[in-house]
Amino acid sequence: MDSTNDSITVGVRCLGDRDIPRYQTPGAAAFDLAAAADLVVAPGQLALVPTGLVFAVPDGHFLAIVARSSLPRRGLIVANGLGVLDSDYRGPADEARVLVLNYTDAPVSITRGDRIAQAFVLKVPRVAFVPLAHDDGQGSRGGFGSTGT
Ligand SMILES: O=c1ccn([C@H]2C[C@H](O)[C@@H](COP(=O)(O)OP(=O)(O)OP(=O)(O)O)O2)c(=O)[nH]1
What we know:
The protein has no helices and 11 strands. The chain has a domain at 30-123: Deoxyuridine triphosphatase (dUTPase) (Deoxyuridine 5'-Triphosphate Nucleotidohydrolase, Chain A). By secondary structure, it is mostly beta strands. Residues 65, 80, 83-86, 89, 96-97, 99 line the site of deoxyuridine-5'-triphosphate (DUT). Its EC number is 3.6.1.23.
């Protein structure tokens, strides 16, 4: 398979002694985000895990934060499904954080440096909304299983 590899530049500010993120393999779609602090997530509770990184994503893009596949094995999920880091979230205190939920009934420890999530940048169009007539002749197709299982 062949395709031209797009690449964009993303500014990153490392708080403290954090390293610049990197791709783990040449073909990795996302780079990992590591915890910047030790913490214990209580059973059934949410925690915001600091990454020690501030990203300056180009306008018209956002940084998507998702779980690493291995995260549920350690009792955690990324609670907001997909974290959206906006291009205007780039001030000195605008640190990327990972919102995790401990879905187990035991405490889960996170150690500074643990790679808990991954991130990638996507282009997103700005939408200009146009009002639609209530009935534009299209008809409703139904959903939520209307085509069968
Ligand atoms: O998983 C996430 C999600 C968001 N953010 C940061 C970047 C994002 O730009 C900002 C606001 O996120 P969002 O708009 O999703 O949050 P909100 O709940 O709508 O709050 P706000 O009123 O701050 O927009 O928080 C993270 O660091 N991690």
